[in-house]
Write a structure and sequence with these properties.
TPR repeats lie at residues 327-360. InterPro entries: Heme_biosyn_assoc_TPR_pro, HemY_N, TPR-like_helical_dom_sf, TPR_rpt. With 393 residues, the chain is mainly α. The protein has 19 helices and 2 strands. Helices cover 78% and strands 3% of the residues. A hairpin with a 2-residue loop joins strand 1 and strand 2. The radius of gyration is 45 Å and the shape is rod-shaped. It starts with a helix and ends with a helix.
């Protein structure tokens, strides 16, 4: 529009000048080498205007040509992009359906025309992994890693694939590298939690729990379970490295709430027993069951290697008088009587325990006590009850 107005302005100026100097056209002489060209001023102005008009026309034609070419190019590019997206979407559906081969084929067919080829390569890597095609999977992951902003997505995909085939050490290596850059990524935190558990890295697992809780990645039961698991594993590690004294020192350093946890008390007692600190172990058991009658702790009492079991027997007899409903206390008492070869006392303890609840081991212990007293028929009947209980379970 501006160019057209400019041409009209020149024409108007030409008409004005022409009327002012009509009859006085003058002339223009152009000399080039041995050639000369003469014309009137009016003719020159008209030629210049025609030349400018031609230039404007050529420019317009060229621009329209480029515009049509660009539109044509964009049409085919958009068409390819739409097709690439359609194939990718179909491939993702096939991946979800478990048709790995079709998924791999669809997402790679037009990946070069997709606006997010990273997505195509990651889906292809998952499909290849599911088919057990490791070289193809690694090739797709390599192509994916060449895409911009792909570090986290590729790393998490690799870690998940390693975990799926129980390669926890490889997954741990990948996740450890990623965590330096993405310390708060929730998917990464959940995956590295799995690796810590499987690799029995108890201290790192325990230190990870606050971050998992902060991101709301743990329900309360799982948080309690992981705390118990990590601290139980840590107790074992400390016992192996530092012995009984180091174990007791670490136990004393633990939060008070954890030192009241029956599961952790059991783990601590087991480590004491393994290191022949049986007297210390029994003292802790006695203090704990007085407040919280845990079955697992009663079951540990017969495992204690004590020089004199009679004080323990007396304690259990007093306990059963105060708590006649505690079957596990009777069971522990019966096992101690077996160790002392007091068969009749063992028989009475086990019979009392079995009246309160059925237990395969107690039936076996009772059968043994009856055999020792030559009550063969009664022992066989008890053994049959034990077998029936096993079959029923």
């Amino acid at each position: 529009m501006i160019r057209i107005l400019f041409l009209f302005a020149i024409l108007a100026a030409g008409l004005f000048v022409g009327t002012q100097f009509s009859g006085q056209q003058g002339y223009v002489l152009i000399s080039i080498a041995d050639k000369t060209l003469e014309m009137s001023v009016t003719t020159l102005v008209i030629l210049v205007i025609i030349l400018l008009a031609l230039l404007f026309l050529v420019e317009t034609l060229i621009k329209k040509s480029f515009r049509y070419t660009s539109a044509t190019w964009n049409y085919f590019s958009v068409r390819k992009l739409k097709r690439a997206r359609r194939y990718t979407n179909e491939g993702i559906i096939k991946l979800v359906e478990g048709d790995w081969k079709a998924a791999e084929k669809k997402v790679t067919r037009w990946s070069n025309h997709h606006d997010k080829p990273l997505l195509c390569y990651l889906v292809a890597a998952e499909a290849a992994h599911a088919q057990g095609k490791t070289p193809e999977r690694d090739k797709y992951l390599e192509k994916a890693s060449e895409q911009p902003d792909s570090t986290l997505a590729v790393g998490l995909t690799k870690a998940k694939q390693h975990i799926s085939v129980l390669e926890y050490e490889n997954a741990f290596d990948v996740l450890s590298t990623l965590r330096n850059t993405y310390p708060d990524n929730p998917v990464l935190l959940k995956l590295i939690k799995q690796c810590y558990v499987k690799l029995e890295l108890w201290q790192p697992l325990y230190e990870l729990l606050p971050a998992l809780d902060k991101k709301h990645l743990l329900e309360q039961p799982e948080q309690v379970q992981l705390t118990q698991l990590s601290q139980s594993g840590k107790l074992k590690d400390v016992a192996n490295l530092e012995g009984t004294n180091g174990l007791i020192k670490y136990w004393d350093s633990m939060p008070r709430k954890q030192r009241k946890d029956p599961v952790l008390i059991e783990a601590f007692v087991r480590q004491l027993i393994e290191r022949h600190a049986d007297s210390t172990a029994y003292t802790l058991i006695k203090e704990t069951v007085a407040k919280h009658p845990e079955a697992a702790l009663f079951q540990l009492i017969p495992e204690l290697q004590l020089k004199d079991r009679h004080p323990v027997i007396k304690d259990l007899e007093k306990y059963t008088i105060k708590h006649p409903e505690q079957a596990d206390a009777y069971s522990a008492l019966g096992q101690l009587h077996l160790h002392e070869e007091d068969w009749s006392a063992a028989q009475l303890a086990f019979e009392t325990a079995l009246k309160l609840r059925s237990d395969t081991k107690d039936y076996a212990y009772l059968s043994d006590a009856l055999h020792k007293q030559n009550f063969t028929n009664a022992a066989n009947e008890v053994a049959q009850k034990a077998l029936a209980l096993v079959d029923a379970s």
